[in-house]
Amino acid sequence: MLRCGQMMLAQALICRHLGRDWNWEKQKEQPKEYQRILQCFLDRKDCCYSIHQMAQMGVGEGKSIGEWFGPNTVAQVLKKLALFDEWNSLAVYVSMDNTVVIEDIKKMCHTIPLSAETAAESPPESLNASTQSDELIFLDPHTTQTFVDTEENGTVDDQTFHCLQPPQRMNILSLDPSVALGFFCKEEKDFDSWCSLVQKEILKENLRMFELVQKHPSHWPPFVPPAKPEVTTTGAEFIDSTEHLEEFDLEEDFEILSI
Question: For residue 206, how far is the Cα from the chain centroid?
C-alpha cells in the first residue's frame, strides 16, 4: 500500500511538471524535473516522500512502524507530507464520508500558494471508459527491486522505478472495495471541468463510488484548510518527532483522494 501511494503521487507529479502526454523511454536522457521527482521517492529518510517518511508519518495515524496501511492511512499521510513539499506546492484534499465538497477544495487551494510554472491541461475526456469495458488495467508493485541512490552526477538510475512487465487486466467486479481514487487538477478551470464531467458521467449511475456536492454539509464540522506546522524541519529533512506528527488530527473517514 505504501508503494501504491507513492505510485499515485508520482504520477500526479509527472502530470504537474511534465504533462499528461509525457512518456518514459528506457535509457533516454530525461528532463531535470523528472530526475527531481525521482529524488522525492528515494528510499532515504531525507527524501520527502520516501518509505521512511511515510512510515514515520503513519505513527500520527495510529500505525506503528511496519504495520499494514490501508487506503485511508496512505491518503492522510500523503496529505500531511505534502505540507512540507514546497517545490511541488500541492494542495491535497481527502474527502469525508465519500463526499467531495467543491467549496472546501476551492477554499483550500486559494489558501495554499500554488505554482503555475507550466501551461494548463485538460482532464481526460471520459471517466466511464472502464465501466463500459468492465475491465481495469493495473500495475503490480509486488516486485522486489534493488536499492538505488543518487549517482555522482546527481541523476538516479531509474530502471526499477518503472514497470518493465506488461500491465495486467482484471474485471472491475473483482476489485477490492477498499480503494483510493486519485485525481489531479492543475488549475481551477481543470477542476471545474472535472466536476462537470463527474456530474455528467459518474453521478448518473445508480451505484456511485462517491458523491460531489457544492456546499459544505451543515451537519459536518467546519472545514479548516491544512497548514504547515511551526516546526524547524522541511520536506527534505527527516521528521523524527511523533510530537509534531500528533499535531495533525485529521478526519478518519475516507474514500476518495483528490490531488
Answer: 27
pTM for this structure?
A: 0.78
The tens digit of pLDDT for each residue in 193-203 reads 999 999 988 88
- What is the bridge-based pairing of β-strands 256-258 and 168-171? unpaired
Residue 213 identity (one-letter amino acid): V
Beta strands in 61-159 (DSSP E): 93-94, 99-101, 135-138
Composition of the chain by helix, strand, coil, percent to 5: 35, 10, 55
Beta strands 93-94 and 181-183 are unpaired
173 in Cβ contact with 167 (< 8 Å): no
Report the chain (259 residues): mean pLDDT per 10 consecutive residues: 92 94 88 94 94 92 89 92 93 92 93 45 44 77 83 84 85 86 93 94 80 94 83 43 37 35
Query: Could you read off the pLDDT of 13-45 as tens digits, one per residue?
Result: 999 999 999 998 888 889 999 999 999 999 999
Rounded CA-CA distance 143/102 in Å is: 38
Angle at 110 between CA 18 and CA 215, to 5 degrees: 115
Looking at the chain, list the stretches that DSSP marks H as alpha helix, in order from N- to C-terminal side: 2-17, 32-40, 51-58, 71-82, 102-111, 129-133, 188-197, 242-245
The residue whose grid cell reads 508520482 is 10
